[in-house]
Amino acid sequence: MGPRGRVFAFEPMLEGSPLRHRIGAVDRAICLSLGRDDFLTMLSDNVVLAQGLFRMLLNTPRARQWRTVYTPPLQTGPAAPRSLPLQPLEKVLLLRENPLLERATVNQLLDLATIMREVPLTSGSVLFTETDPPAVYHVLRGEVRLEADAADPIVASSGSTIGVSETLAGVPLGRRATVTREGQAVRLDHDELFEVLADHIDLLQGLFSGLLQANQTEAVLDGSGIRAR
User: Fold this and answer.
1) Taking the CB of residue 184, how many other CB atoms lie within 10 A of it?
2) Whole-model pTM?
3) Which candidate, 127, 198, 196, places its Cα nearest to that of 163?
């Protein structure tokens, strides 16, 4: 029996998964219901509401591995240099490597690929500052050092993704990023990302699902950022 005001089946609705338990009333009760499709449509039409929900999920321990810098648990070494601009198929394959997008369709990935910008990394240059608008960066080759006054520096090397949580939550990263080894990166800007999400409700749902399932691996902090193991 749940207390007054409790919300049931919220996470399964976000994930698009069936309920694992039967819910029944043991006494007279008045409930308000909101269908999954109506809720997701409401989110796609309201960027602020979607960002608030992402912010709530990303502030939970289960999703801490996505904060600031995410480095996959398995690394195969630095990527080979790529010629810019990248071909659409190359962008799709890069996006497919992100576990948050493993449920995305080819058409959804192609739409994301159209807003993906190539960024040359020049040693000593500033990639972004503490107050710049949030964006997701994926380091193809090279190294970026993120610094803040009240925090230890974080190094994002080849294969790392920067700013997933901040971009989904719509807040600046609060760190200054300096390129320490030249290379290449790609970027997804916040506004364009949410325009794509608004057109693909199931892609938005897939991101929620990926964050909710993030607690299936344990996140640990090391010198390269937050890794999953």
Assistant:
1) 20
2) 0.78
3) 127
Q: What residue type is assigned to position 26 of the chain?
A: V
Distance CA 206, CA 210 (A): 6
DSSP for the chain? -PPTT---SHHHHHHT---SS----SS--------HHHHHHHHHH-HHHHHHHHHHHHTSGGGGGGSSEEE-S---SSPPP-PSSPPHHHHHHHHHTSGGGTT--HHHHHHHHHTEEEEEE-TT-EEE-TTSPPEEEEEEEEEEEEEETTEEEEEEETT-EE-HHHHHHT----SEEEEEEEEEEEEEEHHHHHHHHHH-HHHHHHHHHHHHGGGGS-EEEETTEEEE-
How high is the pLDDT of residue 34? 74
Burial 83-106 (b: 16+ CB within 10 A, else e): eeebeeebbbebbeebebbebbee
pLDDT of residue 141: 92
What the chain holds in terms of domains, given with CATH numbers, is 10-228 (2.60.120.10)
Question: What is the crossing angle of helices 190-199 and 47-58, to 10°?
Answer: 100
Residues with Cβ within 8 Å of 44's Cβ and at least 6 positions away in sequence, in order, are 50, 197, 198, 199, 201, 204
Flag residues of the chain having pLDDT under 50.
Answer: 1, 215-229
Q: How do residues 113-126 score in pLDDT, each as one tens digit?
A: 999 999 999 999 99
Predicted local distance difference test score (pLDDT) of residue 174: 92
